[in-house]
Write a structure and sequence with these properties.
Blueprint lengths: L9 E5 L12 E7 L5 E9 L5 E6 L8 H6 L5 E7 L13 E7 L13 E7 L5 E8 L12 H11 L2 H19 L21 H20 L6 E4 L8 E4 L14 E5 L3 H7 L4 H9 L9 E3 L2 H9 L15 H15 L4 E5 L6 E5 L8 H9 L2 H20 L4 H47 L1
Helix pairs in contact: 4-5, 4-10, 6-7, 8-10, 10-11
């Protein structure tokens, strides 16, 4: 955000705590205090129900009073700011409009206050119509948890543990009222912008992301480009940013501009798995006119496309013949899934008109990422990549593009198989016990007869 951390020596957070590992906060408030113990800035951490997050850094509206009067008057504790809305929160509001925050410093003056919260957020549409007023305020005097005894802490937890669990059901209930009773228009969720934190990646997306990062290192090392690449990942388990440098020594007169390549949402890796040519996939998204559907950002589109277009020819070779028969059959199944996938639509604005060009890529056998995974990844990495991509393509074919449906079906099949196995063992065990009982009964009858 371009701000120095040293400018704010003290920070307080107002949020709902996590309980049993679960927490959902529509908005959290950070109060940042400077060395003069004055509220210098606030951070609003906004979350939606799609596991996406947006941080708004606010410095407040500057005072219109002369500096001499402002220094004489005691601080009022009021904090105001207005900023544009660029984050999808509710399906009943678009991503346009603006927010206005009116907050009071809970520790005014000079961090000596009682800690009473009073924040009001106003949402205004792009046509300057009032849309929403939300207020968070204290109803009782604040309490210091450091002074709690055992029973006081237990009473506090017993009184508030359920709040986080009912927040999401309450949101769904109110959304149902607005949709079914009020008949409000629904805005479909767009993809997040580059300054927003996207949702968490699935296990399959994380596996493809790991392979893609190794792929990037490989093509940067073996390419003829002189520009380094700043790869910014959205996977928490990997470094947030990493500079990938080529092996070629730059010409003294050449410019070494760094190519920023930021993955905005993990959906990038799901879409990547569906394409045979990475450069074609990147071109599709770069040529898209609407930011609502982009999954990555780059500072130099032409240089990035040229980097992938000049990738080593070894990435066009078919995968090596695997020694594992099962893995060989799964690669053939993956090839079949790719050949039965949908066509790709490219939206171009080169002539300032929307032109839809369909490029049929179904005749391609394996993608560049497939070839890299089979030729350069370890056996474990190769198997994980193969399973992840197969699941995504299979979900496109039979599960409406949702791998979660396949996971649910797999779980149901495992439960059913376990049930049938237990019932079979039980039936067999009863049969064995029944035969033994009959044998013992016959022996007893013979004994009695004798």
């Amino acid at each position: 955000m371009g701000e120095a951390i040293d400018d704010y020596s003290t920070a307080y957070l107002v949020t709902a705590p996590r309980f049993l590992g679960y927490s959902f906060n529509p908005v959290s408030f950070w109060y940042l205090y400077n060395d003069q113990k004055e509220l210098g800035a606030m951070i609003l951490e906004v979350n939606n129900t799609f596991d996406e997050r947006r941080l708004y850094f606010l410095k407040g509206t500057p005072s219109v009073k002369p500096e001499e009067e402002r220094l004489k008057d005691p601080p009022s504790g009021r904090f105001k700011d207005t900023w544009p809305k660029d984050f999808h929160v509710s399906p009943f509001n678009s991503r346009k409009g603006s927010y206005k925050l009116t907050a009071y410093d809970p520790f005014s003056p000079h961090l000596c206050g009682t800690g009473m919260i009073d924040n009001t957020i106003n949402l205004t549409s792009s046509k300057s119509h009032a849309k929403l007023v939300a207020r968070v305020f204290s109803t009782k005097a604040s309490s210091d948890p450091a002074t709690f005894g055992y029973w006081a802490g237990l009473r506090f937890v017993a009184a508030w543990w359920w709040v986080g669990f009912v927040t999401f059901p309450r949101i769904v209930r109110e959304a149902g009222k607005l949709f079914f009773r009020r008949k409000l228009h629904v805005w479909y969720r767009p993809e997040v912008l580059k300054d927003t934190i996207g949702r968490r990646a699935t296990n399959d997306e994380a596996i493809i992301a790991s392979t893609f990062k190794s792929f990037l290192r490989y093509i940067i090392t073996n390419s003829k480009t002189e520009q380094p690449l700043n790869y910014i990942s959205c996977i928490p388990s990997s470094p947030a940013s990493e500079i990938l440098n080529p092996n070629i020594t730059a010409h003294p007169n050449s410019s070494r501009e760094v190519i920023d390549f930021k993955i905005i949402t993990p959906l990038f890796f799901t879409r990547l798995a569906r394409h045979s040519h990475i450069s074609e996939f990147l071109s599709n998204e770069i040529l898209t006119n609407d930011d609502k559907d982009r999954t990555f950002y780059t500072s130099h589109p032409k240089l990035l496309l040229q980097l992938f277009a000049d990738s080593p020819t070894t990435l066009s070779r078919p995968p090596k013949e695997d020694s594992s028969i099962s893995r060989r059959l799964r690669w053939r199944f993956l090839h079949w899934l790719r050949s039965h996938g949908p066509t790709t639509t490219v939206q171009s604005d080169e002539t300032h008109q929307q032109q839809h060009i369909k490029t049929d890529v179904r005749h391609f056998s394996f993608s560049q990422l497939d070839c890299f995974a089979t030729n350069h990844e370890s056996p474990i990495g190769k198997t994980q990549y193969l399973n992840a991509v197969t699941k995504i393509l299979l979900a496109d074919l039979i599960a409406f593009g949702h791998p979660e449906i396949l996971d649910a079906a797999h779980y149901v099949l495992k439960v059913l198989a376990s049930y049938l196995f237990v019932m079979g063992v039980k039936e067999r065990w009863n049969a064995v016990l029944g035969e033994e009982w009959k044998v013992q009964a016959c022996e007893w009858c013979d004994f009695e007869a004798g």
